[in-house]
Amino acid sequence: MTLSDRPEAPRAPGEGASPAIPGNHLHTDGRKLAEHLLGGDRIALARGISLVENEAEGSEELLDALYPRTGAAYRVGVTGPPGAGKSTLVGRLATAFWKSGKRVGVVAVDPSSPFTHGALLGDRIRFQDLPTDPRLFVRSMASRGSPGGLAYRTGEACDLLDAFGKEIVFIETVGVGQSELDIARAVHTTIVVLVPESGDEVQAMKAGLMEIGHIFVVNKADREGAARIARNLKEMLHLRLAGRDSWEMPVLAVSALRGDGLDDLVRAIERHRSHLEAAGALGRLKRERAEQRIREIVDEGMREKFWGRGEILPLLEEALARIEDGRSSPYREASLILERARSNGEKG
């Protein structure tokens, strides 16, 4: 039995466990599922995340019903190259906040199976050492090829944890992707994790990773070269970002395996939250996430509607034939398809 399957302990008034409902309704009746989730039913939470992750029937209804109950959870992203010890670090952080009395959620984004598109590693293997307490909830999600290191529906999964009453949610990415903007948009605080062996990589690190990080961690700090990479990081951050923000990004030496430096990291997260609150940034970040979500939903809907129009696929086949014959290019044909679609729409 995983953490996600264990019954929820008694919660504050109005957050107690609700009676189970038939499994077939859990997957189709989004509003009924929302009621049970808000009642503290961990099974409803687990099934709700599956519903959202698979974009199944009822998922939008579920998200719509829960959205007014979101906004209280503080979200922390942990990113960095594979092998940097992100899972161990997230486990330590989750335990630390749990010990302080917080209700904690963890979303671990895994590489996908090329056959099932499901998460390969899962919470059973990666977070075995977390306390088996109902105030902790761990969920693995498949990245399914997302370039930014996040599963497509990670933000929605965090919304469900938020509505469920989790006070802090940690998101671990699959690794450093081509675009780190995904994690920056999904969380309040971004932790970038490196190891002494990353020394050469730091010199060639993309500016994007330096831009999104709020806290930098040199993990496995007991290894040779840790002090050097920490020093290099501090110099790079000072040169790149001096004067851009009143937040001074810390570079912390940590050994997640041994627990060294963890207290400093917890304090840094709390300081950054206080910094955002003092600047009035939490409301702005929620607004930005809402705008991003609206744009994504509208873009997806318009794309499906466009390619679902009966006259478009024949135009695409004609375009491909001209490209294969060397008479045209994808750029010219895309313009022609859009022009024809617009013309047909005006006629209709």
The arrangement of helices and strands along the chain is HHHHEHEHEHEHEHHEHEHHHH
Strand element count = 7
Question: How much helix, percentage-wise, in residues?
Answer: 40-55%
Give me the secondary-structure category: alpha/beta
Q: At the first level of CATH, what is the class of the largest domain?
A: Alpha Beta
Estimate nothing, just give the exact number of structural domains. 3
CATH architecture annotation name of the largest domain: 3-Layer(aba) Sandwich
CATH topology of the largest domain: Rossmann fold
Enumerate the spans where pLDDT stays under 50 for 5 or more consecutive residues. Answer: 1-27, 112-125
Question: Could you give the order of strands across the largest sheet?
Answer: 3-2-4-1-5-6-7
Task: Describe the largest sheet.
Answer: 7 strands, parallel
The CATH homologous superfamily of the largest domain is named P-loop containing nucleotide triphosphate hydrolases
Mean pLDDT: 81
